[in-house]
Amino acid sequence: MELFRALAALALAPGPEQERLALLLKMPPPPAPEEHTELFDFLFYPRAAVYLGAEGMFGGEAADRIAGFWRAAGLEPPPEPDQLCLLLVAYAVLAEREEGEAGARRVLIGEARKALLWEHLVSWLPIYLAALARIAGPHHRSWARLLDRALIAEAEASGPPDRLPLHLRESPALPDPRAEGGEAFLAGLLAPVRTGFILTRADLARGAAAHGLGLRQAERRFALRAMLGQDAKATLRWLRDEAEAWARRHGSLPAALEPVRGHWAARAEATRCLLAELAKQPEVLLAG
């Protein structure tokens, strides 16, 4: 569990402690503070609710559900209960408590630890870490891979959950603009739990450059709206290809991550199908 504590600390702003831990774990040295800030404050928010919530934003029902877990586990929920560093430390704390108990008490703590692992960590982190590793520099790529391996090892040791995590069971699909309107569709594209993939500003910049589109210096929603306004068909086809690539990535995740990997793969494939249909009739978005 010391690895989980160390990985939690390494997700914080770089400093002497992070340099020491990187050295101990034989990782590349931490980057400059501005690189860390760009990664975690602007591209990959380390908050579970952003990836598990239907709104794709801080707070909401997903964060409330995680706060409820803290209480049920006998832990005081912090102001940001879905913050990645805190969840990793909470996992280490529960594992250490489990090790120190016996009988029924040990079983109860073990069940809480497994619930935290599957409901609030494995439910989103493999996807988050895969996306981050594609963009991050050497230090954070190494961090993502270490955390990914640690999660897979814990998943293998604990065995699969009895059913799909609640966050995923109750997640709505991407709204169809033909039935729910263009604004609902646009908002849904930025909620990973709805689409099956993560769409960062760096991804939008890549997509805009690939199709000769201008990218507005604004929030992702406005930037995406501008891309659709310039060339809806090209943007929808690019998004379709992103969904297809993510469906393949999810399918290649280790079998130990079932049923989570299957759910994310199916969600990405459903999104791909919808986007493929919309690309044939982009006027639907322009009309909405």
Describe this structure in words.
With 288 residues, the protein is an all-alpha fold. The protein folds into 2 domains: 2-168, TorD-like (Orthogonal Bundle); 173-287, no CATH class. It is built from 18 helices and no strands. It has helices spanning 2-10, 16-24, 33-43, 48-52, 60-72, 84-99, 103-121, 125-135, 138-158, 166-169, 177-180, 182-189, 192-195, 201-210, 220-230, 232-251, 260-279, 283-287. Helix 1 runs antiparallel to helix 9, helix 7 (103-121) crosses helix 9 (138-158) and helix 15 crosses helix 16 (232-251). The longest helix is centred in the middle third of the chain and has 21 residues, at 138-158.
Q: What kind of sheet is the major sheet?
A: none
CA-based gyration radius: 20 Å
| Architecture per CATH nomenclature, i.e. the level-2 architecture of the largest domain | Orthogonal Bundle
Question: Are there runs of 5+ residues with pLDDT below 50, and where?
Answer: none
Give the structural class: mainly alpha
- What's the end-to-end separation, in Å? 51 Å
Number of domains: 2
Q: Give the ordered list of helices and strands.
A: HHHHHHHHHHHHHHHHHH
Whole-number mean pLDDT: 95
Helix content: 55-70%
* CATH-defined fold name of the largest domain: TorD-like
Question: What's the arrangement of secondary structure elements?
Answer:
Elements: H1 2-10, H2 16-24, H3 33-43, H4 48-52, H5 60-72, H6 84-99, H7 103-121, H8 125-135, H9 138-158, H10 166-169, H11 177-180, H12 182-189, H13 192-195, H14 201-210, H15 220-230, H16 232-251, H17 260-279, H18 283-287
Helix pairs in contact: 1-6, 1-9, 6-7, 7-9, 8-9, 15-16, 16-17
